[in-house]
Specification:
mainly alpha; 9 helices; 0% strand
């Protein structure tokens, strides 16, 4: 296994950890955090795990992309780290919320507003999570080192995800539409994770022979 494919493997592992920790923390633990200090602490730990996994994945993509497409490499890394910082802000606010009731004597006066701002970090920071998919996809289209259809799906998913983040922040009543717009991004990300872990990345551009339907899908 060459160095590039080893990098692809650990990048895929970090991306998988990001997906798992994010789902556990945001979808399962976070709704219970307001009712239980134990779940609140677990939520903070999971969010810090998301920060670490997101940062490692961003560095991994930079290492994979920088040789062939430095602009995409910097873009993916920058947007990925920006998203990690947004989640770090949420974790910091949730940490403060854990201490707020004891200091203020009133959950409504202390912890609740902090949790609301932490939620806002997730909602608005999701813009960066959509943005990082776009250069991830344009790299594939430019180099053909991964399936071309994956690149198209990542770009479309990234655009949809950014739109869903804007809708969720500006028009919270459009929550159902925002959730639907996130589906293409989820499909593209799962494909990318699976491809990185099982195939890695091609070491050279694919053949210049006329493209068939099979070539388009990888």
């Amino acid at each position: 296994m060459n160095a590039l494919r080893r990098t692809a493997r650990w990048t895929g592992g970090a991306y998988l950890a990001l997906a798992v920790l994010g789902a556990l923390g945001f979808l399962l633990v976070r709704p219970l955090a307001a009712e239980s200090a134990g779940f609140a602490r677990l939520g903070v730990a999971l969010e810090l795990g998301v920060v670490v996994a997101q940062s490692l994945a961003a560095v991994g993509f930079f290492a994979l992309y920088r040789r062939d497409r430095p602009t995409e490499a910097y873009a993916v890394a920058t947007f990925g780290i920006a998203n990690a910082i947004a989640i770090l802000g949420s974790a910091a606010l949730l940490t403060a919320a854990l201490a707020a009731p004891a200091e203020t004597g009133s959950d409504a006066g202390g912890a609740a507003p902090l949790r609301s701002v932490a939620d806002a970090f997730w909602t608005t920071g999701a813009v960066f999570f959509g943005l990082w998919l776009v250069p991830m996809g344009t790299f594939i289209l430019a180099t053909r080192l991964m399936p071309r259809l994956l690149g198209v799906l990542l770009i479309a998913g990234g655009a949809c995800y950014v739109t869903s983040a804007v809708l969720a922040a500006a028009l919270p009543e459009a929550g159902g539409t925002a959730d639907l717009l996130g589906i293409p991004a989820t499909v593209g990300e799962l494909w990318m994770v699976g491809y990185l872990l099982t195939v890695g990345i091609r070491s050279a551009p694919s053949s210049r022979a006329p493209r068939s339907a099979a070539a388009v899908v990888g």
